[in-house]
Design a protein that fits this description.
single chain; alpha/beta; 5-stranded mixed beta sheet; 3-stranded mixed beta sheet; 4 helices; elongated
């Protein structure tokens, strides 16, 4: 998973490098490696709702407006990771849909908690950096919170 996250972050850097001082829109196309894990024998649900699929970061800096659309790539990333991690995975568009399912042992609901970036102009070293903090809610089959993972 760590390698996938590094790759996703690196995919963001290329388009950002070519942004000038005017409005910049970034929508990275994910080309993620297949996770190398042995699936856990469990039937789980994965909620990939609009909070994640529609995630956009917008800010103004250095005389320009920046828009970074991360949602679609993260939907693909989380689905790939969870498919590789569990023997049975059901993907749902909402928590209500996951709660209505039968036979699940757990429900996972990932989200982006924080996104930030620095440009070469922001750093004294002339490099770009991207930070993404994820929150993954671990829920019971009834949808009650059992834990929260931060990554």
């Amino acid at each position: 998973m760590r390698q996938s996250l590094k790759f996703a972050c690196a995919a963001l850097l290329g388009p950002l490098v070519f942004g000038g001082c005017t409005g910049v829109q970034v929508k990275p196309d994910p080309d993620l490696p297949v996770p190398l894990v042995r699936p856990m024998p469990a039937n789980v649900g994965l909620v990939l709702g609009t909070e994640l699929s529609g995630y956009r970061h917008e800010e103004s800096r250095q005389g320009g407006d920046w828009t970074v659309e991360l949602g679609p790539g993260h939907v693909e990333e989380f689905e790939s990771i969870f498919r590789a991690s569990f023997s049975e995975l059901q993907v749902f568009p909402s928590l209500d849909a996951a709660r209505a399912a039968t036979g699940l042992q757990a429900i996972f609901q990932p989200g982006i908690e924080q996104y930030s970036f620095t440009t070469a102009r922001d750093t004294t070293g002339g490099y770009w950096a991207v930070t993404i903090r994820y929150r993954i809610a671990v829920l019971t089959p009834a949808g009650e919170q059992a834990d929260v993972l931060s990554l």
